[in-house]
Amino acid sequence: MEKFLSDLLKTASVTGCENAAGDAVLDYARENGLASYRASIGYVAVGDVEARGGVLLAAHMDEIGLMVSCIMPDGMLHVCSVGGIYIPMYFGHAVRIHTKNGVVYGSVSASRELFRKEQKATDIIVDIGARSGEEAAQWVEAGDIVTFDSDYRQLKNNRLAGRALDDKTGVYVVMEALRRAKAAGVRTPAAACATVGEETVKNGAYAAASRLRPKLAVVVDVTYATDYAHSVSEAECGKITLGGGPAIAINPICSRARIGVLRRAAEGCGITLQYETSGARTCTDADCIHQTGEGVETLIVSIPMRYMHSACETVDLQDVEDCIELIAAYLKACEEEF
Fold it and tell me: Which residues contact residue 185 at a Cβ distance below 8 angstroms, ignoring those fewer than 6 apart?
């Protein structure tokens, strides 16, 4: 696996605290001689960062998680949710509290009674081993972010599992696609953005699109694979398999004409495409980029994923590679427009 993707996955970047992931993106840009900047709200842009009216490649570097809300007199921590967490997954799980002085480890309390009722974020109680609230306050404070205590693992058949592959795999895709296109001499003006806030208010994508005013946008995110037990229904969004290739969104905000260009680019590269369908919001950065300014023609290229928003999100690295090659080829196909 590439070092840049590994560096991204090692960071904690719960929405609102994305700086560590942004640092990894800036390091990647410097190492590859690409222009870059970090906006005051935190998103990072790489490539043709001063161009206007080009192509915006966007993927979000924030992840779901928890935030410490208060310290109880007994030293236990209460938390609130940040983004679309699945509350039952935390009970009995080890977590990391990311503080100004480093990581503090904790356990989430669990009992059979918790699973017999509808759970709320206030039911997630973190034990860091403190014997009192005063002692706990020496190590943590309200506002500290909390993630699963998990790392990525490479599985059989070139598959990868871990926390926050949604959407750090997408960040890797847009940055690497831009780098390869520039290295190949592609003239299309393009900037790749690692956005912030996607899991909550999507402020990063809106700010980036407002500044760059792109003519076209390609948003890279993950989508639900439907090839395993407990997955979403194929009838709901289409047949999506891990290892089956990039999934192209067919949605009212996605340009049908641009999908045609993408298909031809895929054919030229020998890449097999899959298609996901939806008739309303996409719940990605595309929703706000598409509506920025006078409107932006938008595409969504998705990486098939199993077990989304868990500590063991799983993707196929060949799908990731195919997304990179597809988007680099798409940038080449757009040259005549600029």
Answer: none
pLDDT, block means (10 residues), the chain with 338 residues? 93 97 98 97 97 97 98 97 93 96 96 84 96 98 97 96 97 98 97 97 96 97 94 86 97 95 96 94 95 96 97 97 98 94
Can the peptide bond before residue 167 be classed as cis, meaning omega within 30 degrees of 0? Answer: yes
Cβ neighbour number for residue 179 with a 10 Å cutoff: 22
- Can you give the pLDDT at residue 112? 84
199-215 confidence digits (pLDDT tens):
999 999 999 999 999 99
**Which SS3 state, helix, strand or coil, does residue 141 take?**
coil
Distance CA 252, CA 280 (A): 7
Sign of the torsion formed by the C-alpha atoms of 203, 206, 209 and 212: negative
pTM score, two decimals? 0.97
Strands (E), the chain: 36-38, 44-47, 55-60, 65-71, 77-82, 94-99, 102-108, 125-127, 145-148, 153-155, 159-162, 190-195, 216-224, 247-250, 274-277, 297-305, 313-316
| CB 240, CB 227: distance < 8 Å | yes
Per-residue pLDDT at 152: 96
pLDDT of residue 230: 86
- Closest by CA to 266, choosing from 227, 215, 324, 317, is 324
What SS3 class is residue 6? helix
The helix/strand/coil state of 37 is strand
How far apart, in whole angstroms, are the C-alpha atoms of residue 55 and residue 329?
13
Instruction: Look at residue 152 and give its three-state secondary structure.
Output: coil
Among 27, 32, 67, 31, which residue's Cα sits nearest to residue 44?
27
Contact by Cβ (8 Å): 38, 22: yes
Alpha-carbon dihedral angle through residues 146, 149, 155, 161, given to the nearest 10 degrees? -10
What's the confidence (pLDDT) of residue 231? 87
